[in-house]
Structures are given as C-alpha cells and as structure tokens.
Amino acid sequence: MNNSTSLRVRLPVLVLLMEVVFLGLFAGFVTYDDNANAKFQNNETNPMDNSLYRDYPFFADVQVMIFVGFGCLLAFLRLYGFSGMVFNFLTATFTIQWAILMQGYFQFYSDGKIHLGVINLLNAEFACAVVLISFGAVLGKTSPVQLLVMALLEVPIFALTEWAVLKYLKINDAGGSILIHLFACYFGLGVTFVLYRPSLNDGHVKEVTSYQSDILSLMGTLFLWVFWPSFNSALTLKGDDQHRAVLHTFIGLSSSTMTAFALSAVFNKRGKLTMADIQNVTLAGGVTVGASVDMMISPAAAYALGIMGCTACFMGYRYLTPFLARHFRIQDQCGIHNLHGLTGLISCTAGICAILMANEETYGPSMYQIFSHRAPMEGDPKLLELQQLIPGLMPGLGRTAKEQAVYQVAAIFSTIGAAAVGGVLTGFALKLPCLATPSDEFCFDDELFFDVPSDFEFTQLLDDIEIFIMG
C-alpha cells in the first residue's frame, strides 16, 4: 500500500471529525416536528393525521433506490464491485445526515430549530440522490476520502440553490428534473472536467465488465425501475396529482425500456443486445416525464416522452460521451449527462409546454393547486370564488402561463450555472494531495482500498490472460 493512498489516518480523521460536528449540530439545532413530538401526538391519533403514514412508504421506496439500486448499478466494473457498492453506502449515509442539517438551515422555524420528521428525511434522500448521480461521473477515479469531501461541498451548494430557486423563482418541479437531475449532472461534469486524466481517454485495462458484474448492475437497474414511480410522486400533492405521477412514470419507463431493446439490437453490428444499454438507457423515461409528471399531459404524451428520452440517452452514450472526452476534457464515467442531463432538458422542455397549455377547461379549479403560483393574489375576488370550491386554497402570485414558463427557463439556466461553477470549484478541492487520489494505474481497482478475498488475484489473472489473448 502506497502511503499516498493509505486510508489509515485520512478516512478515520475525516469521519470522526464530521461525526463530532454532526453530533454538536444535532444536539443544538435539531428537534422533532409536530408529527413526531409526544406533546402533539398520542396512540389515539388518526394515522392519516400523521405524516409517517403518508410519507414513510415513499421514504422506504426511495431508500431502496439509494442504497440498493444505485449501489448495485455502480458495481458494473469487473474489479470495482466492492468500491461501487461500498463507497455508495458510505457516501449516501454521510450525505443524508449532512443534508438534514443543510436543508434544515434554510427552513429554520421561529424557535431557531430544525424540526425533524419523515418528510425531512425524504428531502434529504433527494439531496443524497443528487450526490450519487454526480458520483457517477468520477466513478473509479476517486478515493472514498475524495467522495466524502465532494459530498461535504456539494450538499450546501445544492441546498442553497434549491432554496433560492424555490423561494425566488417559485417553479413547478415535481419529479426533480431541474433541481435533482440537471443540478447533479452538471455538478458532476464540472468535477470531472477538473479531474481530467489524459491517459484514460483511450480506455483502461481494468475498465471492463464481467458476467457477474453485469448481472449485479442489472439488479440495480431493476430496483431503480420498480421504485421510480415513488421517486417521482413522493413530493406531489396527495390524491389525483400523485395518482397521475405514478401512472405517467410507469408509462414513460415502459416505453423507454421497449425502445432501448430495439435500439440496442439495431446498432449492434452483430444484431445482439448490449448490457450497458439495458442497464442505463431503460431508465431514461423515468427522468423524461419528471417535470410534467403530475400534470394533465395525457398517457400518450408520457409514452412519447419515454421514447424521446430513451433515444436521446442512447445516442448520447454512443456518440456524445466519447466526443466530450476527446474535445472538452469531460470524462463522464457512467454517462450521467445522457441519463440525467439530456433527458432532464427534454423533461424541462415538456414541462414548460405543459404549463403553457394548462387551462381551467382541462384542470378545473384544481389548476390553482397544481400551479399554485398562478392562483389569484390576496384580495382578488376570484380567489374568494375558488376558495368556496377548494377550501384552504392559498393565495398565489397571479402569474400567467407565459410568466410561469419564463421563471421555469430562468430556473434551468441558474441551476445549471450554479451546479457547473460549484462542480469546478469542488474539483479543484479534490485535487489536494492529502485526499488519497488513486494513480492512473490503480483506477477501477478494488485492491487499492480494500482487503480483497483470495480469489481476487485469480480474477485479475484471468483479466491479464484475456488482455494478452485479445492484444
């Protein structure tokens, strides 16, 4: 073990330091929300009056996506399975704790406390998904210390961006197309731009998959596929909005899956299926319907969005990823620009079109719940009429459809800008020599950071023989 990559001091010092900081912050600033506080809840409380019963099923589903889905999906490299899954586990656990504090910082209650409940954990998991998506751009080329530092810096930048966009631009983003997928993508691309390794542009001898690693990665895809409707619908309004979100996500995923199989066979010179296409491109529809997932776009539109997203994602993997690596110093290891960037842009465009076409004839009075910023302002007589139809309807900003669309566009550009700048700055921080950066030779290799089992050397030997025979 080279001292420059030894974790013996670096990882424990960073982890223990952050645990002490987290413990102090939790002790000083975190308390229970009303749904978890014994003063306001008891065993006779109606279950549906407690957010646990409304939100925990979605929290559990997203948790499976974070720890199992992402973990298995990132284990696709033959000699990097331990790292793909374990670094995901470590980074996700750290990120959720940090996100609770950072997102809560921008939501302080009058008593100066962060009121913790299941909904806060769910929001923290979405922040965690942002970090794990960005992680995909630098998979195999970073140490666990670098990944923790990346999460440490990305979460506050994300929390600030999220707070500013929602507070001042006030957008519709039910499936997180802007604040999750676009932010994560361009932050990760900013990091990998700074961490560019010229010698990896022509590939790496260990940058290969195996029969077992491909199966494990496909299991991750299946977990993500099955639970994606919960991801897209978790933060939508309960009732028919959430119902539509589930339906649209399933339809989009289904059409993108069918399209992925067709494209994979057509573009394979031998007319066979490519596992990388099945593992990644099939998920594109879940992202593409995100921005309009709770709107009245029609099942046919969701189906078409799945096809469009899948096609863009597939072509991105095939042509755009190598182009960016050769000409723009962007080595996108897992192709996050294809699965989250391109599809996120398509999703945002579809969402803007849906906003422009939304009217009371299609939505009825509930339009002012889904598009809450288009509701009449306080004092407007129409607000009183709507409140008689929908008791509890809150005053809005009185925006027109065109005005709301302009704010959506502003949110897209501001989010991409903040993410890219934050990613570049974080990339420079990750270049510090004390963060156990792996050399080019030991990229994509579990042996650098793990005690590996005895058959690991045999696996490496098989790789060497295969490389010798092929080359």
UniProtKB/TrEMBL annotation:
Domain of life: Eukaryota
SUPFAM superfamilies on file: Ammonium transporter
Domain named Ammonium transporter AmtB-like: residues: 21-433
GO molecular function: ammonium channel activity
Protein's name in the database: Ammonium transporter AmtB-like domain-containing protein
Subcellular localization: Cell membrane
Transmembrane segments: 12-32, 58-80, 86-106, 118-139, 145-166, 178-196, 216-235, 247-267, 300-320, 341-358, 405-430
Gene: LOC112215787
A Pfam family the protein falls into: Ammonium_transp
Keyword Nucleotide-binding: no
Membrane-topology annotation of the record: Multi-pass membrane protein
Role: Functions as an ammonia transporter. May play a role in the elimination of ammonia in the gill.
Record bears the keyword Kinase: no
